[in-house]
Amino acid sequence: MNDDHVKGAGKKITGSLKEAIGKVTGDKKTQAEGTAEKAAGHAESVLGKSKDKDDKS
After folding, report:
1. Helix boundaries (H) for the chain
2. Where is the composition biased (Basic and acidic residues) (predicted)?
3. Single pTM value for the model
4. Which site from 4, 19, 28, 35 is most exposed, i.e. has the minimal number of CB atoms within 10 Å?
């Protein structure tokens, strides 16, 4: 498993938590930060998966 894949998964989890906390508390800034972090984590995870495929080729 690629390092980017692991980091991306962590960011997705953290972003999801921030997003949920923002929704529950009504804090739009925290919710937006969580959404952005989750998206960045998804992109990093996809990059890691791509690198994994390249390593197997």
Report:
1. 3-25, 28-56
2. 25-41
3. 0.81
4. 28
